């Protein structure tokens, strides 16, 4: 892409870029993102949990209580409840991202999972196809935004559809 042409801006779960921001201090660097998509798009890293003020490392959390309106509580200690912190973050952050043409979310994340996040009610998994709290907020704020999960990038046709859709926005 010539230097005078601006790349489309695509939000991305920061751990996919190799940043150690996950609850366990690890990353989930994605080769397709790093080697291919970073050449096509200007990637805008977002880590809702860290940006909301949670530390690294931190206790792991999960979606609980309700599929439609879940809480974000501790996986190992249900007394840990960061729902309010995350909801406050999700109330303000989407407005800062209005210039995005797409978003690449981390699958199964209680914050960023797009359609793969488990929800637990009374200690039992009731679905594995819910949406993380931040992903819900972004998709509600920008229903036309082109979105994908990291696991979907592995399918060449899905990846190509995502790239084409972002380039044509």
Please characterize this protein's 3D structure.
There is one protein chain. By secondary structure, the chain is α/β, with parallel strands linked by helices. The protein has one domain (9-167). 27% of the residues lie in helices and 22% in strands. It contains 5 helices and 8 strands. The protein is globular.
User: Main sheet?
Assistant: 4 strands, parallel
Could you report the average pLDDT, rounded to the nearest whole number? 96
Count of alpha and pi helical runs: 5
Query: Over all CA atoms, what is the radius of gyration?
Result: 16 Å
Shape: globular
Q: Within the largest sheet, what's the order of strands? A: 2-1-5-8
Say how many strands there are. Answer: 8
Record keyword descriptors for this entry.
four-stranded parallel sheet, 5 helices, alpha/beta, 169 residues, four-stranded mixed sheet
Secondary structure layout plus pairing:
Blueprint: E1 9-13, H1 31-40, E2 42-46, H2 48-51, E3 61-64, E4 71-74, H3 83-92, E5 102-105, E6 117-121, E7 124-130, H4 133-141, E8 146-149, H5 156-167
Helix pairs in contact: 3-4
Short description:
By secondary structure, the chain is of the alpha/beta class. Helix content is 27%, strand content 22%. The strands form 2 sheets. It has a 4-stranded parallel sheet with strand order 2-1-5-8, covered by helices on one side. It has a 4-stranded mixed sheet with strand order 4-3-6-7, with no helix packed on it.
């Amino acid at each position: 892409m010539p230097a005078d042409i601006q790349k489309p801006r695509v939000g991305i779960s920061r751990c996919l870029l190799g940043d150690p921001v996950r609850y366990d201090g690890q990353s989930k660097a994605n080769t397709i993102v790093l080697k291919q998509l970073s050449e096509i798009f200007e990637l805008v890293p977002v880590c809702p949990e860290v940006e909301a003020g949670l530390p690294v490392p931190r206790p792991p959390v999960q979606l609980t209580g309700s599929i439609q309106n879940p809480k974000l509580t501790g996986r190992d200690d249900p007394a840990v409840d960061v729902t309010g912190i995350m909801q406050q973050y999700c109330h303000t952050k989407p407005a800062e991202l209005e210039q995005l043409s797409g978003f690449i979310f981390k699958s199964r994340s209680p914050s960023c999972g797009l359609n793969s996040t488990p929800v637990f009610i009374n200690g039992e998994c009731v679905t594995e196809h819910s949406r993380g709290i931040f992903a819900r907020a972004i998709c509600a704020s920008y229903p036309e935004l082109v979105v994908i999960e990291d696991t979907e990038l592995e399918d060449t046709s899905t990846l190509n559809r995502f790239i084409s859709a972002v380039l044509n926005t």
